[in-house]
């Protein structure tokens, strides 16, 4: 089931991305042209510098129907006012002067002015086209991967929520049907246990031969307000709203993959450490000077002192001393 849901997510994602690419390639509206992007940037920068609502025409102090001669005259006048040499030390004067030149170039060009007039009359769109935002933000591979992870995990969480609500309704319906079968239409609780059969597979249907076949029947036991599922082995399992699994971020595919990888890494690390400990223990037992080897060791001897002996050699020597002492007596 999880694999099916994940594949379904990928299919939906591929469909959405493909539709987006096709739309992006086939749609060449005003908001997706490079020349429009330049106008959008100028409008934004001009309003930020000169005040909201400032237009190319209002900044040059000409009307929107001004002739080319009038625009040239207004540009020369404005450029003298904003020239950096006449405004030493003024913050942002170089940017404003350069912006004035670009705006004047657009208004002097017939096609450029026509394109600006379109947005001047209709307003600059709030959504400026996918190409505009992509050219300015250019998401890297990491950003795209994070976006896809969030998108697919969010979709999976949404499916989990829908499945939880569906299962919750099924559980509540099964409990109600079990109580109805056990208590009757009045739905008054009765003492003792009552075994009933509840139809979980929908209403009756006809098979290929035309015979009426009941839906999937489930054995259940009702005791007071509690409803139990009776399995073939005779065990009772309480049925309540906790039987439905709620949605959880921890059960989305990326979090499960992350948790599984961490557990696998810890398991491998523990096994590796156990292997190292076992090798060290084996090496300690196999060393000739190890106390566990049963051989004689010599350590800490001083002048005039016999080396200490351990193991079988020491026992043999002690026995010989006792026999010599017995013979002398």
TrEMBL record:
Transmembrane segments: 140-159
Annotated Polar residues bias: 292-302
Subcellular location: Endomembrane system
PROSITE patterns listed in its UniProt record: DNAJ_2
SMART domains xrefs: DnaJ (SM00271)
Region entry Disordered, spans: 277-329
Basic residues bias spans: 319-329
Domain of life per record: Eukaryota
Main localization, broad class: membrane
Keyword annotations: Membrane, Signal, Transmembrane, Transmembrane helix
GO annotations of cellular component type: endomembrane system
Membrane topology: Single-pass membrane protein
Residue ranges of every copy of the J domain listed in the record: 55-120
Signal peptide annotation: 1-19
Keyword Nucleotidyltransferase among UniProt keywords: no
PANTHER family to which the protein is assigned, alphabetical: DNAJ HOMOLOG SUBFAMILY C MEMBER 1
Protein's UniProt name: J domain-containing protein
């Amino acid at each position: 089931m999880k694999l099916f849901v994940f594949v379904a997510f990928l299919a939906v994602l591929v469909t959405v991305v493909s539709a987006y690419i096709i739309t992006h390639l086939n749609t060449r509206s005003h908001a997706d042209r490079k020349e429009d992007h330049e106008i959008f940037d100028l409008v934004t920068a001009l309003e930020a510098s000169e005040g909201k609502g400032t237009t190319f025409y209002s900044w040059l102090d000409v009307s929107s129907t001004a002739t080319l001669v009038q625009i040239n005259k207004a540009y020369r006048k404005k450029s003298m006012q904003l020239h950096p040499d006449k405004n030493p030390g003024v913050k942002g004067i170089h940017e404003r002067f350069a912006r004035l030149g670009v705006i004047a170039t657009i208004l002097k060009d017939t096609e450029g002015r026509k394109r600006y007039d379109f947005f001047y009359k209709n307003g600059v769109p709030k959504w400026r086209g996918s190409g505009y935002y992509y050219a300015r933000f250019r998401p890297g591979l990491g950003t795209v991967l994070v976006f896809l992870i969030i998108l697919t995990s969010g979709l999976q969480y949404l499916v989990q929520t829908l499945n939880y609500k569906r299962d919750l309704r099924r559980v509540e319906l099964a409990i109600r049907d079990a109580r109805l079968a056990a208590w009757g239409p009045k739905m008054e609780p009765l003492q003792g246990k009552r075994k009933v059969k509840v139809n979980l597979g929908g209403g009756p249907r006809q098979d290929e031969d035309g015979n009426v076949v009941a839906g999937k029947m489930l054995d259940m036991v009702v005791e007071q307000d509690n409803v139990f599922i009776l399995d073939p082995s005779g065990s009772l399992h309480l049925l309540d709203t906790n039987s439905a699994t709620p949605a959880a971020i921890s059960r989305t595919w990326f979090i499960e993959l992350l948790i599984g990888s961490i557990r696998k890494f810890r398991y491998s690390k523990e096994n590796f450490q156990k292997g190292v400990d076992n090798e060290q223990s084996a090496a300690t037992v196999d060393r000739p000077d190890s106390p566990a080897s049963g051989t004689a060791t010599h350590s800490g001897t001083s002048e005039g002192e016999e080396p200490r002996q351990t193991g079988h050699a020491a026992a043999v020597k002690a026995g010989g001393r006792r026999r010599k002492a017995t013979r002398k007596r």
